[in-house]
Design goal:
- The strands form nine sheets. Strands 8-11-10-9-12-13 form a six-stranded mixed β-sheet, with helices on both faces. A four-stranded antiparallel β-sheet has the order 24-25-21-26.
- It starts with a helix and ends with a helix.
- The chain is globular, with a radius of gyration of 35 Å.
- It is built from 38 helices and 26 strands.
- With 877 residues, it is α+β, with helices and mostly antiparallel strands.
- A hairpin with a 2-residue loop joins strand 9 and strand 10.
- Among the domains are: 247 residues, 3-Layer(aba) Sandwich (Rossmann fold); 184 residues, Ribonuclease H-like superfamily/Ribonuclease H (Nucleotidyltransferase, domain 5, 2-Layer Sandwich), CATH 3.30.420.10.
- The protein binds a DNA duplex (11 and 16 nucleotides) through helix 25, helix 27, strand 19, helix 33 and helix 36.
- Belongs to the DNA polymerase type-A family.
Length: 877
DNA sequence: GTTCAACCGTT
DNA sequence: GACGTACGGTTGAACC
């Protein structure tokens, strides 16, 4: 059935983010749920084949030979199905030396004897021999949804024999899939005729000499096939099964295990179907422990009374918001303590109440917990409230516990950790409840969320402690969150006139490139942005050499186009590449243009719980991928300028921070020495790898070791290195060998990191940030390799992320302590951009150098490069 | 209107 | 046969 599901569902549509295919698992579980819903069995068991030889293959070595190899995408899915069965408390049975169908036949026979009615689900027609008055077979017609029950009459209607004679028929006809040839020339019709004439195979064999014609001859010639087939297709009904019926009683699934597994498999509709089926509705589960009814706080006195009674407790806080015309506003606040909840509307609030509320929100002594502190802080700030005393952000806690999770939204983590459904919160977030929010019951969902946040906070705290993440939460991420909120609110000033000019310039380039491209293909006009149309032009019209294969044909990516240009020199390629570059730049410019707010500045949003390594990410717009490598691209950096009332922009970046972390973590004497002496790292490494004086290291040698050094932290292979440097794999291998001969501690470290991660199940940064990598133990080689590279990289990239985050806390404190007006605006992984107030440049530079340099005590110095200028581009050069 | 595939920008 | 981390965002095309 797993195989049926595998072929019925397209593998490419069922895969997790990590690349594990799940179509067979999905289909199998889906079918099983349908069966359970339709047939309402009291007992369920699942049987599996093993890879080991069976009595059939031992007797007939050709049994099932000649089958196509199991497709790559099927790998591992059987084990996953077994895990799902375990989570559902359904026994899965397999027996060395026997096939799944033998187990089923035994179960059917024993079940009947015990008085059960039996349903066998199998994709193998041999199962028809099990059919009796009490046993039916569910046999899939096609796909996974059409699985009608077959009884004796159904078999007879289809094959013209009774089920107990089906094996005789199959023996005569043969079974290609099992490599069991039957009698040539005899199909189901002839076989059925003989069986009905002679009463079965024994009768046929008795009368074998009386059967006339070519088919009779054929039968006599191949009678050995028939007897062998009959012996092999007979299913055993007397195995000693390791599991009794009592273990097969259909039980409720192990909720925890199913949730965890379905999270990993990314099954969401199936999860709902499963829990619906078992009457295990998450909403019901939550209702077992009702949320205290909320009090509506009307005035200052009401608020103060409630806070007086409950405010000494940790308070769950949730802001009720309404979004209209793209702007989101807080319209009310919900509080939850251990045994009470309250809601206060902000819509018609008097001055006195506003003041009382402001006091509660800003008070350090009223400890609070929220989900997404940064967002809440900004929303409240907009409304004139300062939020403080927040000890936990459940979004960040959940992230530190499971940084790989795709979503850390409140409904998702509430579902996972507390089994509480917050669909209405989700719907509200998606704007689907916008109308309802106008209605009277704005409070209930907000209160529910506040209650859940508090419960989650208490639930996650011990988990985080156990994983050593409490310090990161309290002393790094929470204070950082506040800094990020301020950076986002500050935004960065934009020279919009310049931005418009750039747009026009790039448009001109695009138009010119488009004309040139069309001219190069005889005036044919295609959409140069359509890879599909480009494929036609490149590989059909122009008949250029084929590039690397991708799903939809052949790739047209930049690297391949450059390759093709070298090979063919075709002018279309030149124009196309120019078009690509210019459209990409114009699209970046257009994105920025749309993002300029009414204050003339761009306010990005930092995602603090997205990157699994601990880095930040930037969105709406992404200011961490503004072009810098090309001349044209750098022009875009010129539009990021110092704002009114400030003197200059300042950028400060760590030089080679990841290599320095590598030197520190590996303890490699050579690397450490290079950094202590302040030498050009790549020159130093090059001189050792190539055995020449530093001054004799050529640019080519330098760029080779540079690529090598950087690649190391990403798990680069000799193949990858050869490709990048356009050298032979042999040469790349020699380069790596020479590198490690001189810097062996690096290799030892990289190996040790993976070994340790395999042992622990996670990697750790210098500051204790963990990343769990269960797929290090996967038996899927590709997944395992990916996990191994992630294990190499996570401590390095993650430590760098920790360090700059610590630096940001230091810089913020330094600026505040010195009473400066200058402020941080942007973070780009190893770089900070600040806006410096008039007269503060020297002090700010000194603070930034000191704090960034002191963010970590490594065995090598942290080198910081600082620059100032009126634009981001000027500042950096 | 939504989702997927391809592509490409940064570190 | 595959082969470098971590991201966000746009476009075209296919689909509902």
């Amino acid at each position: 059935m797993a195989f049926r599901a595998f072929y019925a569902l397209p593998a490419e549509n069922f895969a997790t983010d990590t690349g594990q295919h799940t179509n067979a698992v999905h289909g199998f579980v889906s079918m099983l749920l349908t069966m359970i819903r339709q047939q309402k069995p009291t007992h369920v068991a699942v049987a599996f084949d093993l890879d080991t030889p069976t009595f059939r293959s031992l007797e007939y070595t050709e049994y099932k030979a000649g089958r196509n190899k199991t497709p790559e995408e099927f790998h591992g899915q059987i084990d996953l199905i077994r895990k799902v069965m375990e989570a559902m408390n359904i026994p899965s049975i397999s027996m060395d030396g026997f096939e799944a169908d033998d187990i089923l036949a035994t179960l059917a026979a024993k079940g009947e004897a015990a008085g059960f009615e039996v349903l066998v689900v199998s994709g193998d027609r041999d199962a028809f021999q099990m059919i009796t008055e009490k046993t039916l077979v569910l046999y899939p017609k096609k796909g996974i949804s059409d699985i009608p029950p077959m009884d004796g009459d159904a078999v007879e209607a289809k094959y013209f024999v009774r089920p107990e004679q089906y094996s005789d028929l199959a023996a005569l006809v043969g079974e290609t899939a099992d490599n069991l040839p039957g009698v040539p020339g005899v199909g189901p019709k002839t076989a059925a005729k003989w069986i009905n004439l002679y009463g079965g195979l024994p009768g046929i064999l008795e009368n074998i000499d009386n059967i006339k014609g070519k088919v009779g001859e054929s039968l006599r010639e191949h009678v050995d096939n028939v007897t062998r087939n009959r012996r092999l297709n007979h299913l055993l009904t007397d195995l000693e099964l390791p599991v009794g019926f009592e273990a097969m009683v259909l039980d409720r699934p192990d909720r925890e295990a199913v949730e965890e597994l379905f999270d990993a498999l990314q099954f969401n509709t199936l999860r709902k179907r499963l829990f619906d089926l078992f009457g295990d509705d998450p909403v019901e589960a939550a209702e077992e422990e009702p949320i205290p009814a909320h009090e509506l706080l009307q005035d200052a006195a009401g608020l103060e009374t409630w806070i007086g009674a409950h405010g000494a407790q940790l308070l769950g806080l949730h802001a009720a918001t309404v979004t209209s015309a793209g702007a989101t506003d807080v319209v009310g606040l919900a509080f939850a303590s251990n045994d009470a909840t309250a809601f206060i509307s902000l819509e018609e609030i008097d001055e006195e109440t506003e003041k009382a509320l402001a006091q509660v929100l800003s008070s350090e002594s009223h400890t609070k917990t929220v989900h997404d502190f940064k967002r809440t802080y900004k929303l409240l700030k907009n409304r004139g409230f300062e939020l403080a005393g927040v000890h936990d952000d459940t979004m960040i806690s959940a992230y530190l516990i499971q940084p790989d999770r795709r979503s850390h939204e409140l409904p998702d983590i509430a579902q996972q950790h507390l089994r509480i459904s917050l669909d209405e919160t989700k719907a509200a977030a998606n704007g689907q409840l916008a109308l309802d929010l106008e209605g009277p019951d704005l409070a209930t969902p907000a209160v529910r969320a506040a209650h859940v946040v508090r419960a989650l906070s208490l639930h996650l705290a011990p988990m985080l402690l156990e994983r050593g993440g409490t310090d990161l939460l309290k002393n790094l991420e929470m204070p950082l969150s506040l800094i990020l909120a301020h950076m986002e609110m500050s935004g960065i000033a934009i020279d919009t006139a310049r931005l418009d000019e750039l747009y026009d310039d790039f448009t001109t380039t695009i138009n010119r490139a488009t004309e040139e491209a069309f001219a190069a293909i005889d005036g044919q006009e295609v959409n140069l942005s359509s890879p599909k149309q480009l494929q036609v032009v490149l590989f059909e019209t122009l008949d250029l050499p084929k590039t690397k294969k991708i799903k939809t044909g052949f790739t047209t990516d930049a690297e391949s186009l450059a390759d093709l240009l070298v090979k063919t020199g075709h002018p279309f390629l030149v124009a196309l590449m120019a078009y690509r570059d210019a459209t990409k730049l114009r699209q970046t410019v257009e994105g920025l243009r749309k993002a300029v707010a009414s204050d003339g500045r761009i306010h990005t949003t930092y995602a603090q719980t997205v990157a699994a390594t601990g880095r930040l990410s930037s969105l709406n717009p992404n200011l961490q991928n503004i072009p810098v490598r090309s001349e044209e691209g750098r022009r875009i950096r010129e539009v990021f300028v110092v704002g009114d009332g400030f003197q200059t922009l300042l950028t400060a970046d760590y030089s080679q921070i990841e290599m320095r972390i590598m030197a520190h973590l590996s303890g490699d004497e050579g690397l450490i020495q290079a950094y202590e002496e302040g030498e050009d790292l790549h020159r130093f490494v090059g001189s050792h790898v190539f055995g020449v004086e530093p001054a004799e290291v050529t640019n080519e040698m330098r760029s080779k070791v540079k690529a090598m050094s950087y690649g190391l932290a990403y798990g680069l292979s000799s193949f990858g290195l050869s490709k990048q440097l356009k050298i032979s794999v042999d040469e790349a291998r020699t380069l790596m060998k020479d590198y490690f001969a001189r810097f062996g501690a690096v290799r030892d470290y990289l190996r040790a990191v993976v070994d340790q991660a395999r042992k622990d199940g996670y990697t750790e940064t210098i500051f204790g940030r963990r990343r769990y990598l269960p797929e290090l133990a996967s038996d899927n080689r590709q997944l395992r390799d990916i996990a191994e590279r992630a294990a190499l990289n996570a401590p390095i990239q993650g430590s760098a992320a920790d360090i700059i985050k610590r630096a940001m806390l230091g810089v913020e404190k330094g600026l505040a302590d010195a009473g400066l007006k200058s402020r941080m605006l942007l973070q780009v992984h190893d770089e900070l951009v600040l806006e410096v107030a008039t007269g503060e440049l020297e002090t700010v530079e000194q603070i930034v150098r000191e704090k960034m340099g002191a963010a970590a005590e490594l065995s090598v110095p942290l080198d910081v490069h600082v620059g100032a200028g009126t634009s981001w581009q000027d500042a950096a050069h």
